[in-house]
Amino acid sequence: MEETVLEEPICEEAVLAEEIPEVKPAAMVNKNGVKAEAATASGGGDVASGGVASGGGGAASGFSGTKIFTWFMVLALLGVWSSVAVVWLDLVDYDNVIARAKEFPLNFSEVLQGKLSAYDADGDGDFDVEDAKVLLDQSPGEVASKKNRTKGVKERPVSLVQKEAKEESAVEEQTEPIVEEVIQTTEGTEEEGQLPPNPSQEQQAPEGESPDAVGTTAKAEDATEESFEGKLAVEAGSFEAEAAVQVEEKEPVAVEEKTTQEDSEGNAEDQPEDMLQYKAKKKKPKLLNAFEKTIKAEIDAAEKLRKKGKVEEAVRAFDTLVQQYPQSPRCRYGKALAEDDLAEKMRSNDMLQKALSTYKEASELPNAMPDLIKATLKKRAERQQFLGRMRGALATLEKLVQIFSEDVALKNDLGVAHLLIGDNKSAKRVYEEVLAIAPSNGFAKVHYGFILKSENKIAESIPFLRDGLESGDPGTDDGRFYFHLGDALQRMGDDSAYKWYERGHQRGHFASVWQRSLYNVDGLKAQPWWTPKDTGYMDLIKTLERNWRTIRDEALSVMDKTTGLFVPEEENLREKGEWGQFTLWQQGKKAGESCHSVPKTCGLLERYTEATGCKRGQIKFSVMQPGTHVWPHTGPTNCRLRMHLGLVIPKTGCKIRCTNDTRAWEEGKVLIFDDSFEHEVWQDADSYRLIFIVDVWHPELTQYQRQTLSPI
Questions:
Q1: Band of the pLDDT at 110, cuts 50, 70, 90?
Q2: How is 250-313 classified by DSSP, letter by letter?
Q3: Which of 13, 190, 469, 532 falls 20 to 30 Å from 583 in CA-CA distance?
Q4: What is the pLDDT of residue 334?
């Protein structure tokens, strides 16, 4: 009986021993350096030789020494790769996890944050997805690009990681659009350093022929608010109109993205200095005070609604937080941002005014972090300028400079604010202060040079404009500064002007070296001289030429100096001589009571809306006395053509050059040219020259464009 009992197990074990090699895994080395399958064989051998205890012990030894360790390693590796995948593929909404953790009775969120605070790589007081990316040595841009290259992962049009990193760091860099925004800040962001070659939205520009009108006063504080139909609300004749007037034809790529570079490998000292500066600029501002860090999950939940475009819900969420935590600057600031976004969505100036009030409240609460105060007031000033409230924006920026007196960038912004209201004297003083403490500041230099040129200090303006442009500082790569530097050099007889025009063209500010208008619509036919047939306005041209004597006689009737109807040209375009003008239409509207003095002329033009409705042009008489020379210059826009009808033309001595083609007027004949190209005038005759100037829309502009383009 005992033999029978012993034989059955031995046979079963023997069968098992024979089957094991067929299913066993590849040989693996255990922690003792012994192959796992060898250990199993050894156990099986003991059993076969008659030792059940020995065989069982061998099997147990093989399982505990090898299989447990093997499965431990497999699980460990799965955990590591799962963690990497969570961060790499952004699979887990960390903020939502933390928000739910808040509901635990033991405040699991605080416990977890306490454990992970040592890994706070971005310095915002907690550990989040962005910290994990920093620890993985990945910038947000890299993460997005790697995700887009990963097979099986759906590509998102805008990286959520990039969006959250940008918008949560907020606010100093939120100069909307601009496009998206009016204010061109000088904080050193990439968007400040370069205007798009063809800006995306045009605004009202100076009334004159060239971008020289620096000192014109902006509209009063109580003027009618600009509607949200245009994203930028810039005042006519203001300095900043020249920076902000932009074309509607195409929208720029987000400027803050386009110069993003991948992190270079190696130590910081091995990286280029400009790369280190770039990284420093991207540092996340500290917006949360000590208390607000304890309610960060609630703030983040509301902020997430705003970022996802659920602005109505975001306003309600932040309003609830403000009621619950009335002394929290960050909650109130979030409410202001949400109201701002809602104003944009509703196209409501009233809602934007509400946001302005909330911005102010947030900045005045106790325990507000300095970065939050700065971001809040900058945003408030920016939106005040959007509404055309230039003096209010100036007061806000003055407060900012008072609080952050060492911040040169804010002083530069303050200088621009003074220029916006036509206070060149105060702007000049601000930039002198900046240059006294930061003599190499390129932004201050170009603006200071701009002001000097507006004061007709041509020679003095050149080194400031040139050095500022050569600095490459943010905010200096602007078509206006290339324009005015070249113009100043031309007036000094320096042919290097065309080098700067060429550079401006290469930078995308000018259509060509000859065509240097700043407020353009892309794709329009560009040629210096036009024939009547080219324009398609044959009826208008025939009317002018058939009735030129009637027009001439009315012009002569108002040339009596005692009436004072002809006023001197005030655009600083003359080198010498006298040049007077009598305007009938300006920016698509009749100029006062002028037509009462020349009713027949106005009557002839009334039905030609291509001329009387041209919001980017003028209709006027122009008289030029002998000995007059008009500097080479260009008009402000490519959206119009200019017609000259000769009325009183001396036989010799009067000529006009457009590009490298010089022509002369004839009485009763119309000359047509595109004044966005460089042109120059000489009057060396013995008597005055009188012409009638009629600006018309460029014939390729659509009816919609003619209706929606802003006036110049």
A1: very low
A2: -PPPPHHHHT--PPPSS-GGGS-HHHHHHHHHTPPP----HHHHHTHHHHHHHHHHHHTT-HHH
A3: 532
A4: 97
Residue whose structure tokens are 């000359």? 671
Strand partners, 519: 637
Share of the chain above pLDDT 70, in %: 62
- Per residue in 41-54, is it b (16+ CB within 10 Å) or e — as a string? bbbbebbeeeeeee
Q: If you write DSSP's letter for every residue of 400-430 in order, what string do you get?
A: HHHHSTT-HHHHHHHHHHHHHTT-HHHHHHH
C-beta atoms surrounding 35 within 10 Å:
14
Query: Which tokens go with 244?
Result: 């902000």
Q: How far is CA 172 from CA 77, 187, 257, in A?
A: 42, 8, 15
Residue 83 has what pLDDT? Answer: 66
Q: What is the pLDDT of residue 71?
A: 76
- Does the pLDDT at position 10 exceed 70? no
Q: Which residues contact 319 (CB under 8 A, 6 or more apart)?
A: 335
Taken as a whole, the chain contains a residue count of 712
Which residues have a Cβ under 8 Å from the Cβ of 203 and sit 6 or more positions away? 230, 232, 233, 234, 241, 244, 245, 246, 710
> Cα–Cα distance between 676 and 557 in angstroms, integer?
32
The band of 690, judged by pLDDT with boundaries at 50, 70 and 90, is very high
CA 391 from centroid of its chain's CA atoms: 23
Tell me the two tokens of residue 427: 């702007």
**Token pair listed for 421:** 């209201």
Let me know: does 284 contact 168? Beta carbons within 8 Å: yes
Asked if residues 662 and 656 have their Cβ atoms less than 8 Å apart, the reply is yes
- Contacts for 410-413 with beta carbons within 8 Å, 24 or more apart? 410/374, 410/378, 412/186, 412/441, 412/443, 412/444, 412/447, 412/475, 413/183, 413/185, 413/186, 413/378, 413/381
Residue 91: its pLDDT value, please? 54
